[in-house]
Write a structure and sequence with these properties.
Elements (H helix, E strand, L loop, with lengths): L1 H8 L11 H14 L3 E8 L7 H14 L4 E5 L7 H4 L8 E3 L2 E3 L1 E4 L2 E5 L9 H4 L4 H11 L6 E7 L6 H9 L4 E6 L3 H17 L2 E8 L3 E2 L6 E2 L6 H8 L4 E5 L3 H9 L3 H4 L4 H15 L2
Parallel strand pairs: 1-7, 1-8, 2-6, 2-7, 8-9, 9-12
Antiparallel strand pairs: 3-4, 5-6, 10-11
Helix pairs in contact: 2-6, 3-12, 6-7, 8-9
Length: 286
């Protein structure tokens, strides 16, 4: 049964995706229909790749579910859908109900959908080049059957290019969380993100500075490979709320590689505690 659902909904090279204006309206409507019973949509964005966006998106979802909210986590990054692996769900598949796809479950109250659940091999990503990508992603979003949710956390593809832009445009009532790293060079990325948000008319929850300093596991000294505080300064300059800093923690890499949710397995670590505070701020930010 599950395999059948996968065959039917799995995108393939031979499938054609609509790109005309009326088709796009139809796709956007399907996206909005799919998300209509969700109270809060939080989109995690970054100006560039590799800053910890997927880690943070999954941690926020786990953190919200720990607080007994009904939470969804949606990974629409075609290039590198990393959430299944990070949460130990790489063997999970989507179910089906009423002709739509149903999410995988991680915890009580946490449902997860990843475009990675549809990709059968890494090579599949290659097929998805070109302007059809955003349409394919929207089609994917439109075909998910969510239960009523308090929060949906959406992990967008990295950057502020056409693809994340067109997805964000299809979900105009989402609020954005920006992830950045502390070095000066990242700060122009925050600027880019803020203008992205303004272009799409999303409201901004705030900025998170990730990989901000590290406590040496050998001598306990603080090291700042990427400096620290840049994200906060930038947020302040741009009049954007600052949500907090996450230090670098080797346990994050281990947790992500082993598919163990960091906030559950390393709840006592500094970054996990910082994430808890960020989750609280997000809840209060409504
Ligand atoms: N604070 C941190 N300390 C240590 N490692 C981290 C931290 N945050 C993220 N990482 C690690 O950095 C790597 C990249 O993180 P992640 O995949 O979340 O980034 P991303 O922004 O989603 O990347 P992409 O642009 O490829 O989608 C992962 O291996 C993750 O475990
Ligand atoms: Mg990612
Ligand atoms: Zn040391």
């Amino acid at each position: 049964m599950k395999n059948k659902a996968r065959e039917r909904t799995s995108p393939s090279a031979s499938q054609s995706y609509p790109t005309g204006a009326s088709d796009l309206n139809q796709l956007n409507r399907a996206v909005q229909r799919s998300l209509q019973h969700i109270k809060h949509k939080i989109m995690v964005i970054s100006g560039k790749g590799g800053v910890g966006k997927s880690f943070i998106a999954s941690s926020l979802a786990v953190g919200l579910a720990k607080r007994r909210f009904k939470v969804g986590l949606m990974d629409v990054d075609l290039h590198g859908p990393s959430i299944p692996k990070m949460l130990g769900l790489d063997r999970a598949r989507l179910g089906s109900k009423e002709g739509l796809m149903t999410p995988a479950k991680l915890l009580d109250g946490l449902s997860i959908v990843s475009i990675g659940f549809l990709l059968q091999s890494e090579n599949d990503a290659i097929i998805w080049r070109g302007p059809l990508k955003s349409s394919a992603i929207k089609q994917f979003i439109g075909q998910v059957k969510w239960e009523e949710l308090d929060y949906l956390v959406i992990d967008l593809p990295p950057g502020t290019g056409d693809e994340p832009l067109s997805i964000a445009q299809a979900i105009p009532d989402a609020r954005a969380v920006i992830v950045t790293t502390p070095q000066e060079i990242s700060l122009s990325d925050v600027r880019k993100c803020i203008s992205f948000i303004r272009r799409v008319n999303l409201s901004l929850v705030g900025v998170i500075e990730n990989m901000s300093g590290l406590t040496c596991p050998h001598c306990g000294k603080r090291i700042e490979p990427f400096k620290s505080g840049g994200g906060e300064r930038m947020a302040r300059e741009m009049g954007a709320p600052f949500l907090g800093r996450l230090p670098m923690d080797p346990a994050i890499v281990t947790a992500c590689d082993e598919g163990k949710p960091y906030s559950l397995f390393y709840a006592q670590n500094l970054a996990a505690r910082a994430l808890e505070k960020i989750v609280e701020k997000i809840i209060k930010s409504e």
